[in-house]
Amino acid sequence: MPNERPPILLGILVATVAVALTTLLVYPLKSVAADISLSVVYLLAVLLIASLWGGWLAAATAVASALAFNFFHIAPTGRLTIADGENWVALGVFLITALVAGALADAARSRAAETEQRRREAGLAAEMSRTLLRGGDLRSALPVAAERLSAALDLPSAAIELEPVQSDERRVAFPLREGTRQIATLVLPAGLAEATLRRVQERMVPSLEALLAAALERDALLNDVVETRALRRSDVLKTALLRAVSHDLRSPLTAIIAAAEPLGSEHISDDERRELAAGVSQEARRLSRLIDQLLDLSRLEAHAVEAHPDWCSIDEVLRAAVDEVAAAAQFNLSLDPDLPLIQADAAQLERAFANLLENSARHAGGHPVSVRARSVGRRLLVRIVDRGPGIPSTQLERVFEPFYRSGNERSGHRGSGLGLAIARGFLEVNGGRVWAESLPNQGTSFVVELPLEPTPAPVVSVR
């Protein structure tokens, strides 16, 4: 334990040597002081023993000092007798003084040891409060707290369990309670000293109970906060979904119904019939795409999307995405030659890039959209640039939120507000990321970053 006294045999040896050296030291001092007054020199030995080994050895040292002083320096020397009554008084005063000084030194040492122990325990409590209340997972923090507890108290081991544990021949269990409810158990190895167990019971158990109760309450509050945030986000998505159903789904349905009714009439020409049929087909495709986006978003929000990575070419992915986008805008592809293969789910990447391309084409103002791809170190960068009105800096991150529509959308741009959120979701599932860069009235760039893995070496067949 901290402040543990040195071995008692060493104390006896030191006391014997100190009394002997003090006895020798008195001889040369007789020339400058009276014999009887030199007894105070022995107090040095008594104080030394008291400060290191405690009261009873200091008392024994005081008695040994009195006997040595009597035998060697009080007449008649060489015998344990005193001829002069004045010397009896002086020797008695010395013995009482030595005993009192030893007791005071021992008490001071005990208070210093107690103060140091209290300081260590206060420091341990502060350290454990930082460990248990810093906001991480409580179960992972318990072994760290137990290790610091055992180190501070010089224990062989310690453990803190969040369930009841019974004492047995191998361990001693201290229940940790909040009121009448047991919230955890402090487990120490069997065989510890009774004083150590009593100190743990009286000083450490109450601190641990308070800290664990606070940590468990904090975890409960954090869980409530997380659940509240999840419910709030669910309400936001539900409201946005209802808005999308009421508007974005209703619009193509209304157009389909309005175009389908005249198709059965005998009073329209063949050209009008073909035009109405084309309108029905276009709105049906729009409706189908919106439903697909809603399904993709729901799977991404539920973390139910898994990537099935394989080696694929970003050139082929981008060209397939361009072919999928039904937009009048042109796409100018500028891809570095010999781009390395990437390990990703090609179908998910194609859908992500299709959403990005469709968004850029919708806001390009009739100008071509530039698509550039190059490798930089261990990354593959794809930059999709349009020449539209741009996005305000305050909205660069918000445009990736589900159902968010930028205030820069012009009339005639009918977007669901889902494409960019879906694109980011599919890219993150494949280990990539996407962000927007824009200056007012200077267009927008969507930058996609994908990790590059070492490409497999070609297999050479040996015949």
Any overview of this molecule?
- There is one protein chain.
- The chain is α+β, with helices and mostly antiparallel strands.
- The chain has 4 domains: 8-115; 136-226, no CATH class; 228-301, Signal transduction histidine kinase, dimerisation/phosphotransfer (DHp) domain (Helix Hairpins, Orthogonal Bundle); 310-408 and 415-451, 2-Layer Sandwich (Heat Shock Protein 90).
- It has helices at residues 8-29, 42-53, 55-73, 85-133, 138-152, 194-263, 270-301, 314-324, 346-362, 419-429, and strands at 159-161, 171-178, 181-189, 310-312, 331-335, 342-344, 369-376, 379-385, 433-438, 444-451.
- The strands form 3 sheets. Strands 5-7-8-10-9 form a 5-stranded mixed β-sheet, covered by helices on one side.
- A hairpin with a 2-residue loop joins β7 and β8 (379-385).
- α8 (314-324) packs across α9.
- It is elongated.
- The two termini are 74 Å apart.
- Mean pLDDT is 78; it is low at 459-463.
Question: How is this fold's topology laid out?
Answer:
Layout: H1 8-29, H2 42-53, H3 55-73, H4 85-133, H5 138-152, E1 159-161, E2 171-178, E3 181-189, H6 194-263, H7 270-301, E4 310-312, H8 314-324, E5 331-335, E6 342-344, H9 346-362, E7 369-376, E8 379-385, H10 419-429, E9 433-438, E10 444-451
Parallel strand pairs: 5-7
Antiparallel strand pairs: 1-3, 2-3, 4-6, 7-8, 8-10, 9-10
Helix pairs in contact: 1-2, 1-3, 2-3, 2-4, 3-4, 4-5, 4-6, 6-7, 7-10, 8-9, 9-10
